[in-house]
Amino acid sequence: MNCFFCHVWRCLGTLLVVTMTVTVAVDLDCDPCIDRSAFLIRAILPTTTSRTILDTLRQTGRDMNVAIDIVQADADGNGMVQAIRVTDPNTVNALVVTAPNEAVAAAVEMYMLENPTVPVFGWGWGYEQLAAQSLGWITDHADEGGRMTAQELHARVQEQSNATLNSVALLHSRPLSEASTTRWDAFLEEQTTLGVVGGRYNVLSFPANNPEDSGMEQLTNVFRNCPYQAVVVADPFVLDDIIRVRAAENCDDRTLLAVFLDDTDAFSNPMVYQAITRQQVAFCLNGQVHLQVTLAALMAAVYVTTGKVVAMPIESSTYWSGPLLINARNVPSDTAASCEQSAFPVCSFFDQSSSSFQTGLETTTEDGTSGSVSTTCPCTERREIRIGGVLHGDTTDAFWDPVFAAARQVATDMHIQLDLVRYQPQVSMSLIYEQMAARIRNLCDSGVDGLFVTIPDDTVLAAVQRCHELRVPVVSVNSGQTASQALGLPHHIGQDEYSGGYGGAERLIAAGMKRGYCVDHAFGNTALQERCQGFRDAIAAHGGDVTFGSHISVPSDNQEQYVINVTEAVEADGGWEGVGLLGFGADPIPSLLRVLGEHPNVVAGTFDTSDVLFEAIRNGKVLFGIDQQPFLQGKMPVYLLAYMVYTQQALTNHVIQSGPSFVEEFPSDAQQICEANFFAVCPDRPEEDMTYIPNSLLALGYALFGMLALACLIAVTWTYKYREKWVVRISQPMFLDLVVFGCLVSGLSIVFMGFQTSYRKDRDDSGEFLDSDNPDIGKVDAGCMAVPWFYGLGFVITFSALFAKIHRVRLIYRAGLQMQRKQVTLADVIPVMAIMFAIEVAILLTWQIIAPLRWDREIIEEIDGFATVSVGSCEGGETGWRFYAGLVIFHVLCLFYALVLCFQTKDINSDFAESSFVSLAVVFMFQVLVLTVPISALVRDNTDVLYFVQATAVFLQNFTVLFLIFVPKMLRMSEDQRNPASRPSRTTSLRRQPRQSGSAHLNGRGTSWAGASLTDREDGTTSRQLRYSEDELSAIWEEGSRRSFDNIAERAPVKSVESGSSSERAPVVSGASGSSVRRSVRFSAVEKSDDVSVSSEFEAVANNQRHQLSPDEVESEWEELGFPSKDKAQMIFDLLQRSTDAERRKTILKGLLDESPTEYSTVPTVDPESLSPEGTGGKVAQPVDRGEQSQEAEPPEEVPPETLAATTNGGALSSKPTNVSPRAFSDHLKSGLSELGEDSFFL
């Protein structure tokens, strides 16, 4: 393609840039920032594309925070063509392609014509057909690669054999790519250029991995007799076979090997580098495919988000990523090769489970055999890369605002450090230049990884030379293009001034210009001179009647002088007809507009842009503005330097053109906002882990509450259904309902534990907090305080019900120990419950008023100022913890006090052992509380575990209480329904209790009897009778003695009480020896009702106590209890113990304690045989009726126990009179039994 056609294609491409820039800019949204994640770029690739390229595209998408949709299709068939055709222009913002064949190239070209609003960028294949029409193309310079191959092989052959290179073969096993063909053609042209006439140049192919080994035979023929001085390998993946065959044919020293690395795959590169290191391959050409793909995708992302794109070079319409010639002097290390193969993994977005990327490489060992090595590429921590910038634009120069803003944005995108300082204005620019030079030297001496600078003066140039000597990559920006090239810097980024002037002249000519002028406000500036030169050359190229007037020098800030200078120059050439003016800067635009106002027929354009220019374009006064896009001058150097630092790859073009970009229409409002805020990007926030409680765990919590609610429903239903049954009535249904209600209320706290949201304030797309509240925050705040309210109230309701039961047991227990009459009603326990409830409400209410819990979110981890992990929780501020601690302490103290009471009454048994189960419930509540509080504090930052711990604790605490309180009753009810005989009858014997070891035992059977019976008499009265064991009565005596009662006998219970009788009974007491005895006290009472006999029984077991008394003290105690001696009491109980029949013992007791109002007890006539379980009579003889006896009568003579035991036909036995009033004692006991039977409830 000759220069004319290059120019035509360049002009078409420039027009396309202008048109599409305007179209895309309308759709921009920079208020308040650009949400780049909303943009979609589609990449259409052949199916043979390697993982390296796919990973490169994904990494670029992450860097720019845009979505890249990768579509792979068959290139040889119709796959890629069809994929291109069906791409919806309404869903994609840009297209990134490669064209491996003409069919795909034609499809891309047609798509661009049909969809001009979709920008197309490309890499690799197809650039000759598509680069001029696309907005950007990056590829390997294949022509240059061919020339470099010829030159390098020519030098190697001359060095080895002093011969001319004239026999070369191009060897391939797959169809040659476009790039390989272009390289070969350029190689042949270069051979001619080098003066080589004739020669042997063949393109040979062989089928790789042929099952019949025909491919290997053909390969062997290539090297047989070593006919070629050099063999260029176009398919690196068969290099292993080629090296082995060459060695077998003894051609290692006679045939050089060179390799064209794969243009679409870097996977085989490490194998080639290994061969170069072992001197099996002379060199290879690397097109740096990673850089091609990265920059193509990068340019597409920048364009769709800002409308900005670098200008393509006029001569090629593409930027070159290579070729890079690699030989033994610059071969990459194994690690570098592995990183290239792995697409240079970046730690920031790399798999955090591993700090490196593992790859398997196929290599060739020194003996020519295949081997496998494993090479590790550590990911690049780009946060450690430090890029410096030194620019001469001071803080008052608005031109540099987008430069600095863009550079900082790229540093944020790439996650690198940017050391960039903007200078304050000085009296003289030379002072700024000196500051720049000093800073450049300091940065390079401190080990900066890369540096971009402006070179406006030789003072700065010397400092840059110092950095270049230190091998610090330096890129020049904006000014100093010539100096940059002279120093050998890799890149200069700025506007192609010549192209800007050239394109400006073309547009003015098209508008009717016949005579053109350059209007220069900084006459002598080399950049402005290049602009004018391009302007003149364009006019000359057009020819005809268009001429160049002159290069006018004008001031930048003096309008009068500006107008005078321009007027004089134009009028000197013949007037204003057909005049065109091209201004060179933004500052003189008002002066230019004054000239145009005086001469409206003049056509004009200008370099640089401003709001004044935009208004002039809209009014039609100015045709265009040439934007050198300072935004890209800040953006591109940081990108390119970062890539150079961690990939060691760079473009081969020296100048990267940020402009010219022609602005010919008034920008949209959206475009103006973007220009004003320098295309501010919504922060590329890493995805924040809000540590929300997962739905599965929330479902578990709701399931636990559901189970608890179901258990409460079952319990309250069962209580209501059996409310008239003796099992329920004994346990007081009201307190059972309180337990159920408290458990349900406490369990409701599980529901509110799952309330959660993000932050208290709303956030915009940039992540900045707004003034408006999160709409869910009120609900979540309410849920925060609902947890302690529901749990606390539920706890106090449940606990107060349980505590009431324990408290009533304690009251009865203490009254029993003191032989006092005690009526325990609801009034005795309601105050305690009310006090606990009031304290609980007071704590919660104060908490609610002073420091209520509010939802707050704490950032745990962050990257670059953005939260990556945060934890939400309910917080009460600086004082909230005091109320939480107070509530916990109150609960602990309540439970601890209940535990003390449980321990004091731990040996009290009941017919249903309910007191034991209540104690167990309190113990479990205490354990759950003391364990949950510290565990919750330890896992506070782990919301999942915290929710699980707290929800499970609430569930277990309440469910266990329900289980321990209700399940034993349900089992007893079920047992009674299955076995009616087990129900209490109107005459009930309740307990047979084993005697403990160490107690005095009269009959040696190991059992003492205790219980109660209720018997209806024929006259309608009721007889309540109690029987006590020896230990029980002995315990009464011991407790009374220990408490020093004034009259212990008056507090001792009698053995028989008859309803409606006023008769008195002497107490029956059995003592024990002085050894340690486990004492027990039992009270039994029977309440008679119409349909059921309800037993209320209280048992207290005193702790093991040692009570040592002298014999005299023992006798004195017995006398105080109403017995003349211990022997008399033992004799009476001996009679009772020898009878195993309850009715017989009752008859004996009745005879012993007759109804006469005397202070004497009579002993009935007893048949000893009848006292034996084997007795045949089976009845007890009736007592002898001695008639009424006066109170002053002397008691009968005592009969020794042995005499009574030997008696066969009865006889009288009486005790000495007691010194207590049996009637007073009887009345006291009767009233106590009446209270127990009629009013007490039983736990």
TrEMBL record:
Residues 979-1000, 1209-1221 have a biased composition (Polar residues). Gene3D superfamilies: 3.40.50.2300. GO terms for molecular function: G protein-coupled GABA receptor activity. PROSITE patterns: G_PROTEIN_RECEP_F3_4. The keyword Disulfide bond does not apply. It is a multi-pass membrane protein. Residues 784-970 form the G-protein coupled receptors family 3 profile domain. The chain crosses the membrane at residues 699-722, 734-755, 786-804, 825-850, 883-903, 915-939, 945-967. It is found in: Membrane. Residues 1-25 form the signal peptide. One of its GO terms (cellular component) is G protein-coupled receptor heterodimeric complex. Residues 976-1025, 1158-1226 are annotated as: Disordered. Keywords: G-protein coupled receptor, Glycoprotein, Membrane, Receptor, Signal, Transducer, Transmembrane, Transmembrane helix. InterPro entries: GPCR3_GABA-B, GPCR_3, GPCR_3_C, Peripla_BP_I, SBP_2_dom. It comes from the Eukaryota. This is G-protein coupled receptors family 3 profile domain-containing protein. It comes from Amphora coffeiformis. The lineage of its organism: Eukaryota, Sar, Stramenopiles, Ochrophyta, Bacillariophyta.
